[in-house]
Design goal:
This protein is of the alpha/beta class. The chain has helices at residues 5-8, 14-27, 46-56, 71-85, 101-112, 127-135, 160-163, 184-197, 221-224, 255-268, 274-286, 289-311, 337-348, 374-388, and strands spanning 33-34, 95-98, 118-123, 139-144, 166-171, 200-204, 231-236, 249-253, 324-328, 350-351, 353-354, 365-369. The relative contact order is 0.18.
């Protein structure tokens, strides 16, 4: 049986290896403590749930949802965005509903790239970025994100011959997995860079609300590009409102980019259930409590985990944002990050994400997701120390 060449570029990765390692650990009797996935253990927005419940009883919400049926959602997004970031949006041409932000990052390359075109991607970075480029038949130039440069890419280091073939540059701040943050001034530099080289600036923004006390509000790229000359940005309800399973997000930005992505979307799918849009609108307009609770919970968990790791001899700074801790493996460990994670889960049941799963620059790190209560996270550190000893 023949399969396409593009499928070979989506071959098994370290996360598939970790899934097998977790399954084997459970099969041998280990109790799994899974900190390898950023899937919140907190309940979805009750405001959204109530609106979805009400919609279920309305037969008119049970059919296909075409683009024209998303007008209320798009108008709510435009109003929220202008109030939050001070940049007006045309809800008809500059806002697009998505089935989660990953739909946007995975499908946009199909609208921008041909074979031989290049995308500039962060390393480490979210795996779907590379997957979307592979499906489009494009090539990738990775931009290393290292602690010495505050996990920001060094644009001046990108070779000139690469820039001539570039179609898109993808960033995401606050950053998964490194938890790094970017300033509005940095985004302005990226916009100027992209304008100069005729590159589309793509910003994935799932952690827009996930920043901790004492930190500035993470900026939107359209604040750096208010004319929307070259930028598109992706949002999701998965993190702010714990609605990952409802698969609702949206894109905002340059009207030509929004239209191009809409044309791809029209071929691939309809929109999600109308009631989900009603829930998302209600959450966006009425529910600040869920966001405030989430941030307080994750900050307490962050503090408990980082304090325990540092007391155990690790050198881990407290992340300013996201729901992760990005930790450099202790010098006593001489193997790879994948070996650390697979052996750890086999012997203790604790599952972490190996840094190499996010790119070559992630080797030597592991990512903890803050999806356990503080006491559970402290127990995790105890198990890790026993494993290392």
């Amino acid at each position: 049986m023949y399969f396409s060449q593009r499928l070979s570029r989506l071959s098994a990765n370290v996360f598939a290896d970790m899934d097998r390692a977790k399954a084997q650990a459970v099969a041998t009797g280990q109790t799994l403590i899974d900190l390898s996935l950023g899937s919140s253990d907190l309940p979805a927005s009750p405001v959204a749930i109530q609106a979805i419940h009400q919609a279920l009883d309305c037969p008119e919400t049970h059919g296909y949802v075409l683009h024209r049926n998303t007008q209320d959602f798009r108008e709510a997004i435009a109003l929220w965005y202008e109030n939050r970031y001070g940049v007006p949006l045309d809800s008809a041409t500059e806002v697009l509903p998505l089935i989660g932000s990953q739909e946007g990052t995975a499908h946009l390359p199909l609208a921008l790239m041909d074979a031989g075109d290049i995308a500039l991607l962060p390393d480490p970075g979210y795996p779907s970025y590379a997957g979307g480029v592979a499906l489009a038949g494009g090539d990738i130039h990775f931009m290393p994100l290292v602690a010495e440069h505050d996990f920001l890419p060094q644009l001046a280091a990108i070779p000139t011959e690469i820039l001539g073939k570039c179609r898109m540059l993808v960033l995401s701040y606050p950053h998964n997995p490194t938890t790094g943050i970017a300033s509005l001034d940095f985004f302005r530099q990226v916009v100027v860079f992209c304008q100069k080289h005729e590159i589309v600036f793509v910003h994935d923004f799932p952690y827009n609300d996930m920043y901790f006390a004492g930190e500035s509000v993470p900026p939107s790229v359209l604040q750096a590009d208010p004319q929307k000359s070259c930028s598109i940005e992706f949002f999701t309800f998965s993190k702010s409102f714990n609605m990952g399973g409802f698969r609702v997000g949206f894109a905002v930005g340059n009207h030509e980019l929004i239209l191009a992505l809409r044309r791809i979307k029209a071929v691939v799918d309809f929109n999600q259930y109308q009631g989900i849009f009603s829930g998302a609108i209600a959450a966006l307009q009425q529910d600040k409590t869920t966001i405030e609770t989430n941030v307080a919970v994750y900050q307490a968990r962050r503090d408990a985990l980082v304090d325990a790791l540092n007391q155990a001899g690790w050198d881990v700074p407290k992340p300013p944002a996201t729901l992760y801790v990005w930790a450099k493996l202790p010098s006593s460990w001489t193997g790879t990050s994948l070996e650390f994670c697979t052996e750890l889960v086999a012997k203790t049941g604790v599952a972490l994400a190996p840094g190499s799963g996010f790119g070559k620059a992630g080797e030597g790190y592991v990512r903890f997701a803050l999806v356990q209560e503080p006491r559970g996270l402290q127990t995790v550190v105890q198990k890790i120390q026993t494993f290392l000893q």
